[in-house]
Write a structure and sequence with these properties.
- The protein contains 18 helices and no strands.
- By secondary structure, it is mainly α.
- It has one domain.
- α1 packs across α5, α8 packs antiparallel against α9 and α10 runs antiparallel to α16.
- The longest helix has 30 residues.
Length: 343
C-alpha cells in the first residue's frame, strides 16, 4: 500500500518532534483535572498517588514497593522545582507529575504512530490509532492522574518497537529504564519478548543471538531493581523479597474474579477489546500472540496480590497500543460503495 500521507520526503526528525509536541499538549489537557478539579490522593480516586507525591517532594516515608518506582517521580522533580513558588492556583507537585506523565504518554503515542505506519502502510490509520489510544479511559484516569504507569507503558511499547524493527540489542536498555518505572515491567517485558521470539520466524543463528538479548533484558531489569532497592532502602534487598511481601493470602480464584469483575476492566476494555479483536489478523502475528500471553500473565500477577481493578492498568500497558491500532484499522478503512463491490 502506498503511504500517501507520510512525510517521507520531509524532515522526519522535525515531524516527529512536532507530533510528539502535539501529543504532549493534548496530554496536558487530558490530565488537567488533577490540577484543579480533584485531589487523586483522596479515597475513591487514586490513593497510590500520595506515595508518588512524597517521592517528588523528597519526603517519602513509605516502606513498601511504591518508593522503588522512581522514574516518573524523578522526571517530575525538575517541573516541580520550576513550578514551586511560581504558580499560586496549581499544586506544583501534581503539575510536575502531570508534565512527566505527559512526556511518557506522548512518547508512547508517537512510537505507536511509527509502528502503525510500518504495519499498515497508512499514515492516517497510524495517527488514528494513536488518538484511539489517548482517548481510552486508562489514559485520563490512570496514566495522567498522579500515577506512574505511563513510564511502564512507554518502555513496553519501546520493547515492541525494538522487536518489530529487529533491534533486539536495544532490549537491555529498555530493561534498565523500564525497571526504574515499575517492578512489574521486568516479568511483563521478558514474557513479551520471549513469546515474540518463539512466534517469529528467523534464521537459526539470529534466533540464538536474539534469545541472548531477551535474557539480557531480564538480567538488566533484575539488576536495576536490586540496585534501586538497595540504594533506597539503605540495605541489600532482593527483588523476590518485594514480590513475596506483596502476596495476598486470599483465595487466588476469588482474587481472579475480583479482578475480572472490577469496573475498571469494563471501562478500559469494554469497547476496546471487542472492537480491537476484529482486525487483529491485520497485525503481526508475533505481536498479537506475545501481547495475549503477557496480558494473561499480568492478570495472574494481579490475582496473586488481589489487585482488583488495578490489574487493568498493567493489562492496558501491554495490549492497549495494539488494540488501539486494530480499532483504527477497523474504523479507518472506508468500505467500498456497493456498486463498486458488485462490479
Amino acid at each position: 500500500m502506498n503511504d500517501t500521507h507520510s512525510p517521507a520526503n520531509g524532515n522526519r526528525i522535525g515531524h516527529f518532534v512536532l507530533l510528539f509536541s502535539l501529543f504532549f499538549l493534548i496530554c496536558l489537557g487530558l490530565g488537567y483535572a488533577i490540577l484543579k478539579r480533584y485531589d487523586p490522593r483522596l479515597p475513591g480516586h487514586n490513593p497510590d498517588s500520595a506515595y508518588y507525591y512524597e517521592i517528588v517532594t523528597g519526603e517519602a516515608q513509605q516502606t513498601m514497593f511504591w518508593r522503588y518506582r522512581i522514574l516518573v517521580p524523578y522526571t517530575a522533580r525538575p517541573f516541580y522545582w520550576l513550578a514551586k513558588g511560581r504558580v499560586e492556583t496549581l499544586d506544583p507537585v501534581f503539575l510536575g507529575l502531570l508534565a512527566a506523565s505527559s512526556l511518557y504518554v506522548a512518547g508512547t503515542a508517537s512510537i505507536l504512530v511509527r509502528i502503525g505506519r510500518r504495519v499498515t502502510g497508512d499514515y492516517a490509520i497510524a495517527l488514528l490509532g494513536a488518538m484511539v489510544y489517548l482517548l481510552n479511559f486508562a489514559i485520563t484516569n490512570f496514566q495522567l492522574a498522579g500515577l506512574i504507569d505511563s513510564g511502564e507503558a512507554f518502555f513496553l511499547i519501546a520493547v515492541v518497537w525494538c522487536l518489530l524493527s529487529n533491534k533486539w540489542a536495544l532490549l537491555p536498555l529498555c530493561g534498565v529504564f523500564g525497571a526504574l518505572a515499575k517492578e512489574t515491567f521486568v516479568p511483563l517485558s521478558v514474557m513479551l519478548a520471549l513469546v515474540w521470539w518463539i512466534a517469529a520466524r528467523r534464521k537459526e543463528e539470529s534466533r540464538v543471538a536474539d534469545l541472548c538479548w531477551v535474557a539480557a533484558l531480564g538480567l538488566t531489569g533484575v539488576a536495576t531493581m536490586t540496585m534501586v532497592q538497595a540504594l533506597v532502602a539503605a540495605q541489600w534487598v532482593w527483588p523476590w523479597h518485594l514480590e513475596v511481601s506483596s502476596d495476598s493470602p486470599s483465595n487466588p480464584l476469588i482474587n481472579l474474579f475480583n479482578c475480572l469483575s472490577s469496573h475498571e476492566i469494563l471501562y478500559v476494555f469494554g469497547w476496546l477489546l471487542p472492537l480491537g479483536a476484529i482486525r487483529l489478523d491485520r497485525l503481526p502475528r508475533p505481536w498479537v500472540l506475545a501481547s495475549a500471553v503477557t496480558v494473561l500473565m499480568a492478570l495472574v500477577l494481579g490475582a496473586s496480590v488481589d489487585a482488583h481493578g488495578n490489574v487493568s492498568r498493567a493489562m492496558f500497558d501491554v495490549a492497549g497500543p495494539m488494540l488501539s491500532l486494530s480499532v483504527a484499522i477497523l474504523i479507518g478503512r472506508t468500505p467500498e460503495p456497493q456498486e463498486n463491490a458488485a462490479a
